[in-house]
Amino acid sequence: MSADLIHPGHINILKIAHNLAKDIEKKEKIKCEVIVGLLTDKAIASYKRLPYMNYNQRKEVVENLKFVDKVIPQEVLSYEPNIRKIKPDFVVHGDDWKHGRQSITRQNVIDTLKDLGKGELIEPHYTEGISSTQLNENARAIGITTNARLSLLRRLINAKAPLRILETHNALSALIAQNASVNKNGEKIEFDGFWSSSLTDSTSRGKPDIEAVELTSRLNTINEIFEVTTKPLIYDADTGGKIEHFAFSVRSLERVGISAVIIEDKTGLKKNSLLGNDVAQEQDCVKSFCDKIRAGKLAQITTDFMIIARIESLILNKGQKDALHRAFAYRDSGADGIMIHSRHKDASEILEFLDAFRRADSSTPVVVVPTSFNDITASNLANAGANIIIYANQMLRSAFVAMSSVAQGILEHDRSKEIESKCMSIKQILSLIPGTI
Ligand code: SPV
Ligand code: MG
C-alpha cells in the first residue's frame, strides 16, 4: 500500500486480510498477522508524485488501523523482496492491478509465490466509486499549506533524481508547469517544482537583471503562483544582497512557503551570468560568501528551508580548482546544496566538476542549469551526480517569440484572421481557468 489517502477500498482489503488471518488462527491454533508492506517515499516517487504524508506519517496511520498487526517498509515497487522475507500464507491486493502497468508487478508476485511453493494470491474486487486518484484531485483543488509546500523540496531530493524544475514568471506559466506531463515506459514524468528566475522576473517587468526588482514585488508574483499551484519553488535571490539584509530575506521567503533560495557568489553590481566575462563581474571572496551563508542559516526558522550556494567560477573562467574549493567551503559553512553554473555549449566542464565533487561528497545536493549546454538530458545529468535540473528561462523566452509574432502578424495583415491559428481558441481560454464560465 501507499496509504496516503486512506479510503473504504483500503479498509475492505484489510478486513479481508484480517478475516483470512483469523481463519488460520482458528484452524491451526497459531498466531497469524496482517502485515502491510508500506511503500517508501522513494518507491512511490519512482512512478508517481510524492505522497502528501511522508513514510513515518503514513506508517503511524496504517499501524493504528484495527485490521493491521504490523507495518514493514516496501523499498521498491516489486513485492518480491518482502514476500521472500515473510513467506506469507496469503498475499492480498485489490484486483485493479490486473490491467495496465501494474500487471507486470502482479505477475511477479504470482511467479514468486510459485517459486516459494507457498502462499496464495487473494484479489478482492476493487471498491467502485472511490479512488485515490479522485481524492487526489479533490485535495489538489483545496490546495496545500505553506509548511507542506516548503518541506516538499527536501522530501523530493531524498526520494528521487533528477528533479526537473521549470521557470515560471507568473501564475499562468506556473499553471502550465504544474500540469505538464508525459508518460514514458509507464512512468508519469512531470516538473517537480518552479524556479523564480531573476532574469525572467525582471524581464517580464521590463527591467534589467541587475537586482533592480525588489523582494516585495517578486513575492507578490510568487503569492499569485502559490494561489493556484501545489508544487515547491526555488527562489533566485541573485547575490542575496548585503549579509544583514539576506538574513531578513530568508525569513520573508520562508514565510510564504518557498522551499529554497539560491545565492550566487558575486559582489557589486550583479550582471546576468550568461554574459560571463563579456561584462565586468566580480566574484565575492570565499570568506565573505561563507559569512553570508552562515548568516542565512542562523536566520532561518524552519528546518526544511534550504540555502543553496551558487558558484560562478566556471562562468568567470576561474577554473575547476577554484570551483571545487568554493563548493567545499560553502558546504562546510552550512549550505544545504550547491549550484554549479556554466555557459559553455557542451556539458563537459559541468560533468568534470560533478565527477570531482561526487568523488569527495556523495550526498550534498547539486543543482545545474543547462541553458547553454542544452543537448544533455536531465537523466544524464542525474546519472553524473546532479540532483536538481533547472530550466531557467524557456517559458518566458518562448512566450515572447509567440507574442511578438502575433503582434507583427496583426499589423501586417491589418486584421487577426491570419494569426488565429497561433492562438488558443476563445472556447479554450474561457474554460482554461475554473470559475470563468
Ligand atoms: C536566472 O534565471 O535568473 C539565473 C540563471 O540566475 S542564469 O540566467 O543562467 O544566470
Ligand atoms: Mg538570476
TrEMBL record:
Annotated Cytidyltransferase-like domain ranges read: 4-135
Keyword Transport belongs to the record: no
State the InterPro entries in the record.
Archaeal_FAD_synthase (IPR050385), Cyt_trans-like (IPR004821), ICL/PEPM (IPR039556), PEnolPyrv_PMutase_core (IPR012698), Pyrv/PenolPyrv_kinase-like_dom (IPR015813), Pyrv_kinase-like_dom_sf (IPR040442), Rossmann-like_a/b/a_fold (IPR014729)
Ranges in coiled-coil conformation: none
Q: What is its EC number?
A: 5.4.2.9
> What's a Gene Ontology MF term here?
nucleotidyltransferase activity
Provide the alphabetized UniProt keywords.
Answer: Isomerase, Nucleotidyltransferase, Pyruvate, Transferase
Task: Indicate the enzyme's highest-level EC class.
Answer: isomerase
> What's the domain of life for this entry?
Bacteria
Name of this protein = phosphoenolpyruvate mutase
- Name the gene behind this protein: aepX
